[in-house]
């Protein structure tokens, strides 16, 4: 993928998860944005791409961050929003164990209050240890937390899985994780 498309892909995360108003678009129910409006909005901030380019970004994105509607007239981020959007995900039974990668410097506070969603809609968890490690690494020296999601599920916590396989939950209390 060329540099312009990589830059646009990062911008898409920002506009479809956090700041659509910055390019003059609004998100509809389910977090969907109109593709034509999005392309026009991107042009305004110097990201001049066409539909074929946008499709390449969606299809080749390493974490499958974006989806088109069936008719490809709408697009949305699959997860990671700070905006209040209802992704209309159904609660499902999680695997018995999930992982969360974080940074050492957050641990004093995580030990007190557990994992909280902070700016995002949910706490993000993954089945994949490598993914968890990469996520933690973004913030400093990594700590890998192994979460007893079987117990959490039995205790009534609701789990959701985004279209791109990220597990989402409201919080993880300290009693449910061990440092792995
Ligand atoms: C930490 C990526 C202090 C939490 C990934 C994390 C993910 C606390 C940071 C997605 C805390 C929030 C999300 C507490 C949690 N005290 N720190 N009580 N509770 N934290 O970026 O999970 O590339 O909002 O451990 O794949 O790191 O964007 O969340 O370190 O799915 O598509 O606060 O981002 O996807 O950071 O990452 P984030 P995250 P994308």
What does this 3D model show about the protein?
This protein has 180 residues and is an alpha+beta fold. The chain has 6 helices and 9 strands, in the order αβααβββαβαβαβββ. 32% of the residues lie in helices and 19% in strands. Strand 7 (160-161) and strand 8 (167-169) form a beta hairpin. Helix 1 (3-17) crosses helix 3 (51-60). The mean pLDDT is 96. Bound molecules: ligand HQG. The site of ligand HQG has 18 residues, from strand 4 and helix 4.
Describe how the helices and strands are arranged.
Layout: H1 3-17, E1 33-34, H2 35-44, H3 51-60, E2 66-68, E3 74-77, E4 97-103, H4 107-113, E5 123-125, H5 129-137, E6 142-148, H6 149-154, E7 160-161, E8 167-169, E9 177-179
Antiparallel strand pairs: 1-3, 2-3, 4-6, 5-8, 6-9, 7-8
Helix pairs in contact: 1-3
Bound molecules: ligand HQG.
Ligand HQG binds at residues 63, 65, 80, 102-103, 106, 109-110, 113, 115-116, 118-120, 124, 135, 139, 166.
Describe the structure in brief.
The chain has 180 residues and is an alpha+beta fold. The protein is 32% helix and 19% strand.
Q: Encode the helix/strand succession as letters.
A: HEHHEEEHEHEHEEE
What small molecules does the structure contain? Answer: ligand HQG
Count the helices. How many? Answer: 6
Count of DSSP strands: 9
Distance between the ends: 36 Å
Strand % is 15-25%
> What is the CATH architecture descriptor of the largest domain?
Alpha-Beta Barrel
CATH class of the largest domain: Alpha Beta
Q: What structural class results from the helix and strand content?
A: alpha+beta
| Count of domains | 2
**Helix content class:** 25-40%
Per the CATH scheme, the topology name of the largest domain is ADP-ribosylation fold
Largest sheet data: 3 strands, antiparallel
Q: What radius of gyration results from the CA coordinates?
A: 17 Å
Strand order of the main beta sheet, please? 1-3-2
Shape: elongated
Mean pLDDT rating: 96
Spans of at least 5 consecutive residues whose pLDDT stays below 50 are: none
């Amino acid at each position: 993928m060329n540099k312009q498309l990589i830059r646009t892909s990062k911008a898409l995360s920002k506009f479809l998860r956090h700041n659509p108003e910055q390019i003059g678009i609004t998100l509809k129910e389910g977090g969907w944005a109109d593709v034509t409006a999005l392309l026009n909005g991107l042009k305004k901030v110097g990201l001049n791409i066409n539909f074929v380019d946008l499709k390449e970004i969606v299809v080749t994105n390493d974490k499958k961050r974006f989806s088109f509607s069936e008719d490809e007239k709408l697009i949305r981020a699959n997860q990671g929003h700070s905006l209040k959007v209802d992704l209309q995900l159904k609660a499902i039974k999680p695997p018995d164990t999930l992982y969360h990668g974080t940074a050492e410097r957050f641990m004093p506070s995580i030990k007190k209050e557990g994992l909280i969603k902070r700016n995002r809609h949910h706490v993000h968890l993954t089945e994949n240890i490598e993914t968890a490690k990469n996520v933690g690494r973004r913030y400093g020296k990594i700590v890998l937390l192994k979460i007893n999601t079987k117990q959490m599920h039995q205790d009534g916590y609701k789990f959701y899985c985004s279209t791109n396989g990220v597990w989402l939950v409201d919080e993880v209390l300290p009693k449910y994780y061990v440092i792995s």
